[in-house]
Write a structure and sequence with these properties.
Mean pLDDT: 87
Pfam family, one: LysR_substrate
Structural class: alpha/beta
InterPro entries: LysR-type_TF_proteobact-type (IPR058163), LysR_HTH_N (IPR000847), LysR_subst-bd (IPR005119), WH-like_DNA-bd_sf (IPR036388), WH_DNA-bd_sf (IPR036390)
Keywords: DNA-binding, Transcription, Transcription regulation
CATH superfamily of one domain: Periplasmic binding protein-like II
Number of helices: 10
Family: Belongs to the LysR transcriptional regulatory family.
Organism: Paramylibacter kogurei
């Protein structure tokens, strides 16, 4: 193999998507990092990166090389007997695609804990439903409500989560307590914009109110919560969101309850990537624990 240092530089640029970020990890100036990448591309006779507005994106040849180099890196760790060493530093950038509710109310806590333990790791949260493509490395992994059934993707269930009807306390005081399902037709509702629902499994409003559109709607869970806070109506709300809104009250809990699940979705080719495996495990453990903590706090 050619100069291993050049491959090490390539690997950090691939992981961080930035010459400057890689230079901090490698302790060399960005210009030197750039020259090392160019030297490796010249020696291999292929382009490894495409310069995009958001940083350096791997070409298909670059993706193949990264996979190959990380396999060598993993084999070296096995030879040194340190694969299970939990003190080993995680570095570089990892981009996670996640649903809006999870991105707003669970991942901030989980990712902050992870980066406190691994300060050289940079985590980027890409909120769905913007279209992204794991195969093109637009994200390294995704957390979805409906696991994909086709393609080069593999999914692993993380945890269940639950949803119930809730409203602002002032709204219920003004309009009266809701004690029967038949009373729901008399109330304004808040939910997703119907034609922007990216996954039918998160169309909670239609499941409870099949024959009506929400009076107030947004494609953002955070905006929906603000609409409810302003007294805009009742809404189907994640239980893990409610601890952030102490002035919200659930009702008809025994009559209406929804259960969904979060899944970790990754490229099949990444299953041998020790670094991404470790990050995925940290995220899944953190999400599972945080959802359980938040939901249990309202019981």
């Amino acid at each position: 193999m050619r100069n291993w240092d050049d491959y090490r530089v390539f690997l950090e640029v691939a992981r961080t998507g930035s010459l400057s970020a890689a230079s901090v990890i490698l302790k060399m100036d960005p210009a030197t990092v750039g020259r090392r990448v160019q030297r490796l591309e010249h020696s291999l006779g292929v382009g490894l990166f495409t310069k995009m507005p958001r940083g350096y994106v791997l070409t298909s040849a670059g993706q193949d090389l990264q996979k190959h180099i990380e396999q060598i890196e993993s084999h070296e760790r096995i030879a040194r007997g340190v694969v299970q060493d939990t003190d080993e530093t995680l570095t570089g950038t990892v981009r996670i695609g996640a649903t809006d509710g999870l991105s707003n109310f669970v991942l901030p806590q989980v990712c902050t804990v992870i980066t406190k333990t691994y300060p050289a790791l940079n985590i980027q949260i890409l909120t769905l439903p913007p279209v992204f493509n794991l195969t093109k490395r637009e994200a390294d992994m995704a957390i979805m409500v409906t696991p994909p059934k086709m393609g080069r993707l593999l999914s692993e269930k993380i945890t269940d989560y639950h949803l119930h009807l809730a409203a602002h306390r002032d709204y219920l005081q003004t309009h009266g307590a809701i004690t029967d399902v038949k009373e729901l037709k008399n109330h304004h509702t808040v939910g997703y914009i119907p034609d922007l629902v990216f996954d039918s499994s998160v169309d909670y409003h239609s499941e409870i109110f099949p024959e009506r559109a929400p009076n107030l709607s947004s494609n953002s869970v955070a905006v929906q919560m603000q609409l409810v806070r302003q007294g805009g109506g009742i809404s189907v709300i994640h239980d893990f969101v409610l601890p952030f809104f102490q002035d919200f009250e659930r009702f008809l809990v025994d009559q209406i309850s929804l259960t969904r699940s979060f899944y970790m979705v990754r490229l099949r080719d990444d299953q041998s990537n020790d670094r991404l495996n470790r990050i995925a495990t940290l995220l899944m453990d953190g999400i599972r624990s945080e959802v359980e903590r938040l939901e249990s706090s309202i019981l």
